């Protein structure tokens, strides 16, 4: 779909007088608080407007957007400098040293803020759930897929039976076949990716226990989660690809796998030794 024919805010303002009551309330939230909406999830906008998530998405499509995330990108284009699409803290004349400092500072902040919100009790419940699982299914789409792959490799190395599923169609198939005893791990910064929300919902309906890693704040994914492990990444408001969120997610995966290895005792240590020996054959 092409970009909006003119700026998102102007288009919304032009359409506002003819909108039905629910859509009008959503439009008013966006028009009144555009800079805040860039930060918000579709669930948070829906709650602020007293509407459903589906109504928010429907209005976005009426505006010519593919969905809520597309609307946020278009809003950002009308509110920020072009270089902020790379990283929100950058200035046009920043040299390499300044870019390094700003990028590393953003990553450090994401780790510190995630440390503050990650619930140790929730992590302990996730560890106990994974340890009892007969199989673990790991879901991730787009920028979350590499993090899902890292989680898959790490869990294999401590001796757990797991599968990586990063294709949306295969996720749906996997989820419908995930019954009691299966645990799913879904990774999504926004918690609003239709593919992973759908897979998690289907898995839970099939009887699986669902664990999710997602950013703090309300989003559609959490409605289908038995255990939520929060990140608090200040992911850039103005682009779609992940930077700080990926760092925070990897740290949560590291904490989860480390706790699983400790809980697994000698069995986990033995699995780590065996995999290390096998991998040593791949090196000169």
Automatic annotation (TrEMBL):
Record Pfam families: HTH_6, SIS
Record's keyword annotation contains Transcription: yes
Domain HTH rpiR-type: 6-82
Domain SIS: from-to ranges: 126-266
Regions annotated as coiled coil: none
Database matches in InterPro entries: Homeodomain-like_sf (IPR009057), HTH_RpiR (IPR000281), RpiR-like (IPR047640), RpiR-like_SIS (IPR035472), SIS_dom (IPR001347), SIS_dom_sf (IPR046348), WH-like_DNA-bd_sf (IPR036388)
Keywords for this protein: DNA-binding, Transcription, Transcription regulation
Stored PANTHER family: GLUCOKINASE, HTH-TYPE TRANSCRIPTIONAL REGULATOR HEXR-RELATED
Name of the protein this chain belongs to: MurR/RpiR family transcriptional regulator
Organism listed in the record: Roseococcus pinisoli
Lineage, uppermost ranks: Bacteria, Pseudomonadati, Pseudomonadota, Alphaproteobacteria, Acetobacterales
């Amino acid at each position: 779909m092409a970009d909006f024919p003119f700026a998102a805010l102007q288009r919304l303002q032009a359409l506002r007088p003819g909108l039905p009551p629910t859509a009008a309330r959503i439009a008013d939230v966006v028009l009144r608080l555009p800079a805040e909406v860039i930060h918000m999830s579709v669930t948070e906008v829906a709650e602020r407007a007293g509407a459903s998530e589906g109504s928010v998405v429907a209005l976005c499509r009426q505006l010519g957007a593919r969905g809520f995330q597309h609307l946020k990108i278009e809003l950002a284009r009308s509110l920020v400098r072009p270089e902020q699409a790379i990283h929100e803290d950058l200035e046009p004349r920043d040299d390499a040293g300044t870019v390094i400092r700003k990028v590393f500072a953003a990553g450090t902040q994401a780790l510190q803020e995630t440390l503050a919100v990650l619930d140790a009790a929730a992590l302990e419940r996730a560890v106990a759930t994974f340890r009892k699982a007969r199989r673990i299914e790991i879901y991730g789409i787009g920028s979350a897929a590499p993090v899902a792959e890292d989680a898959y490799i790490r869990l294999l190395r401590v001796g757990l039976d797991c599968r990586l599923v990063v294709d949306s169609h295969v996720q749906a198939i996997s989820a419908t076949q995930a019954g009691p005893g299966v645990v799913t791990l879904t990774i999504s910064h926004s918690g609003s990716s239709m593919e992973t929300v759908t897979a998690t919902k289907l898995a839970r309906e099939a009887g699986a226990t669902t664990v999710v890693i997602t950013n703090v704040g309300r989003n559609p994914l959490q409605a289908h989660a038995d255990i939520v492990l929060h990140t608090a990444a200040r992911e850039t408001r103005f682009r779609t690809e992940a930077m700080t969120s990926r760092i925070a997610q990897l740290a949560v995966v590291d904490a989860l796998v480390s706790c699983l290895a400790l809980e697994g005792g000698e069995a986990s240590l033995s699995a780590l030794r065996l995999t290390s020996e096998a991998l040593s054959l791949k090196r000169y």
